[in-house]
TrEMBL record:
NCBIfam families the UniProt entry points to: EPS_sugtrans, WcaJ_sugtrans
GO biological process terms on file: colanic acid biosynthetic process; polysaccharide biosynthetic process
The entry's keywords: Exopolysaccharide synthesis, Membrane, Plasmid, Transferase, Transmembrane, Transmembrane helix
Membrane topology value: Multi-pass membrane protein
Family in the record: Belongs to the bacterial sugar transferase family.
Provenance organism: Chelatococcus daeguensis
Domain Bacterial sugar transferase intervals: 279-462
Protein name: Undecaprenyl-phosphate glucose phosphotransferase
Subcellular location: Membrane
Length: 468
C-alpha cells in the first residue's frame, strides 16, 4: 500500500462542490432564459414587426431553460469532471436540443404554439448551443481557480489494482484537471490476503476520507474485480473500472446501454444525432434566407450566363455525397462544356473553355450560389468536404488511403480544405493528399464553432484570385 503526497488541510467539505454545482445550474438557467427571451423579442420586433407575446415567451423560455439546467444537474454535468470532458459537453448539447424539441411539440399540442414562431424556436436552439459552450468554459475556469486557491476541495480517490496499470493510469490522466486527488495506491493482492489485510485497506480509505475508488485491472479478470467490489462494499464510495488497454487505443470507445446490458462502442459517426439536427437546422435557415435575399442577383447572373455564350444557365453534374450516395450538383455554367462522364478534365489557369462571365463567377465564387438549393434538398451542407466528380472519386479512391472517409459527412459549399488554400486544380497527387488530410481533419473534429470559423474565413477570402 502506497500513500500519495501529503495533502493540504481541506478548507471546504464535499457539500461545497454541490453548492457550486447548484450555482452553475442557476447561471445556466438565467443565461439560457435571457438569451432565449432576447431572441424572441428581437425576432418579433425586427423581423415580424408584430407585438411581442410576453406571456408566451416567459413561459416557453423559462420552461426550456429550467428543464435544461435541471437535467444537466441530474446528469452531474456541473461537477468538475463534467466541466472538462468533451463527452459531457456533448451531453449538455443533446439535453438542450432534446428539451427544445419536446417543448415545441408540447407547445403546439396544447395550442400554445399559436403565438410561438417556429423560426424563432430554431434560432433559440442555435443560440442556446453557443450560450452553453460559453458557460461551460466559464464554469471550468471558475472551478479550476477555486481548486488552485484552496476554496474547493478535490475529490479524493484511491487506486486499486496492479502496480503497472495504476502507474499507467496516473500517467495517462491528469487527475487535477478532472478535480481529483490521488491519495493512495493499493495492490489488488491485499484483497486476497485475508480479512486482516482487507480491514487495513478499509481503515486506510476511511482515514484518508476516500470518496471514489478506481480499479486498475484487466477487464477479463472478472473474478478478482468481483472480490474487490465485495471487499469495498463496506465503504460508501463510488467504484469505477479503469479503461482497459484496448480502449486506450480507441479514442471514441464508450459504454452504451441497451435493455440493461452494457456494450462497448468502439467508434462513433463524425456527428451524433443531436449534432446532425443542429447542423441541418442551421443549413436550412441560412440557405433559405440567402436564396430569398439574393433572388434578384441570381436572376441577373442567369441572364448574363445565357447572353454570354450558348447553353443553359445552370451546370449539372453527378457527384458523390454522404455515404457515397450520388446526387446532381447545380452551379452557374462557367464553361462552354458540360462534362459529366468517365473522363472529366479539371479547369486550369487560362483555360480556353471558361467563358468571360464564367471567369468572373469562378473568381468570386458566385458560380456556387445555386448549390444553396442542394443544401435545402439535403444533398449538401453549407460546410463540408467539397464534392468531386464521380470519375475523380473513382480515380483518387484507388490512389489515396482513407479517401472514402471524406464521404462520412455531408459535402459542403465551402470546407476546411478550401479556406486553407486547397482550391483550384489538383494537378498532382500531393495536392489532393493535402486536400484529403484537411477534409478528414474536419470530419474527425467537427463542431458548430468550426463551421462558423470556416464560414467566416470563406467570406474573408472570397475576393482572393486563387480559383480559375
Amino acid at each position: 500500500m502506497r500513500v500519495g503526497k501529503a495533502l493540504p488541510k481541506r478548507r471546504t467539505l464535499a457539500l461545497d462542490r454541490l453548492i457550486l454545482a447548484m450555482l452553475f445550474a442557476l447561471v445556466d438557467f438565467w443565461a439560457l432564459h435571457v438569451a432565449a427571451t432576447a431572441v424572441y423579442r428581437g425576432y418579433h420586433a425586427w423581423w415580424l414587426a408584430t407585438p411581442y407575446p410576453a406571456d408566451v415567451a416567459l413561459v416557453f423560455c423559462a420552461a426550456v431553460a429550467g428543464t435544461t439546467a435541471v437535467l444537466i444537474f441530474e446528469r452531474r454535468g456541473y461537477e468538475m469532471p463534467g466541466l472538462t470532458a468533451a463527452g459531457q459537453a456533448r451531453m449538455r448539447r443533446r439535453i438542450w436540443l432534446g428539451v427544445m424539441v419536446a417543448a415545441i411539440v408540447i407547445a403546439f399540442a396544447t395550442k400554445l404554439g399559436g403565438d410561438l414562431s417556429r423560426a424563432a424556436a430554431c434560432i433559440i436552439a442555435l443560440v442556446g448551443l453557443g450560450v452553453l459552450a460559453m458557460t461551460n468554459r466559464l464554469f471550468a475556469a471558475v472551478a479550476r481557480f477555486a481548486q488552485a486557491s484552496g476554496y474547493l476541495a478535490r475529490s479524493r480517490i484511491m487506486l486499486v489494482g496492479e502496480q503497472g496499470r495504476m502507474t499507467g493510469f496516473a500517467a495517462a490522466f491528469d487527475a487535477e484537471a478532472f478535480g481529483l486527488e490521488v491519495v493512495g495506491h493499493v495492490d489488488a493482492a491485499l484483497f486476497d490476503a485475508g480479512p486482516a489485510c482487507r480491514a487495513s485497506v478499509l481503515d486506510f480509505a476511511r482515514r484518508q476520507a476516500v470518496e471514489e475508488v478506481f480499479v486498475a485491472l484487466p477487464w477479463t479478470d472478472d473474478e478478482r474485480i468481483a472480490r474487490i467490489l465485495r471487499g469495498l462494499a463496506e465503504l460508501p464510495v463510488a467504484v469505477h473500472l479503469c479503461p482497459d488497454r484496448i480502449t486506450s487505443r480507441l479514442a471514441e470507445a464508450r459504454l452504451r446501454l441497451l435493455d440493461g446490458a452494457a456494450f462497448l462502442q468502439l467508434a462513433r459517426p463524425p456527428l451524433d444525432s443531436s449534432e446532425v439536427i443542429v447542423k441541418r437546422c442551421f443549413d436550412v435557415v441560412v440557405a433559405a434566407t440567402v436564396l430569398v435575399l439574393l433572388a434578384p442577383l441570381l436572376l441577373v447572373i442567369a441572364v448574363a450566363v445565357r447572353l454570354d455564350s450558348p447553353g443553359p444557365a445552370l451546370f449539372r453534374q453527378r457527384r458523390h455525397g454522404f455515404n457515397r450516395s450520388s446526387f446532381v450538383i447545380y452551379k452557374f455554367r462557367t464553361m462552354t462544356v458540360m462534362d459529366d462522364g468517365r473522363n472529366i478534365r479539371q479547369a486550369r489557369r487560362h483555360d480556353p473553355r471558361v467563358t468571360r462571365v464564367g471567369r468572373f463567377l469562378r473568381r468570386t465564387s458566385l458560380d456556387e450560389l445555386p448549390q444553396l438549393y442542394n443544401v435545402l434538398r439535403g444533398d449538401m451542407s453549407l460546410v463540408g468536404p467539397r464534392p468531386h466528380a464521380l470519375a475523380h472519386d473513382d480515380y483518387y479512391d484507388a490512389l489515396i488511403r482513407s479517401y472514402a472517409r471524406r464521404h462520412n459527412v455531408r459535402p459542403g459549399i465551402t470546407g476546411w480544405a478550401q479556406v486553407n488554400g486547397c482550391r483550384g486544380e489538383t494537378d498532382t497527387i500531393e495536392k489532393m493528399r493535402r486536400r484529403i488530410e484537411l477534409d478528414l481533419f474536419y470530419a474527425d473534429n467537427w463542431s458548430f464553432g468550426l463551421d462558423m470559423k470556416i464560414l467566416q474565413m470563406t467570406f474573408a477570402q472570397i475576393w482572393r484570385h486563387d480559383a480559375y
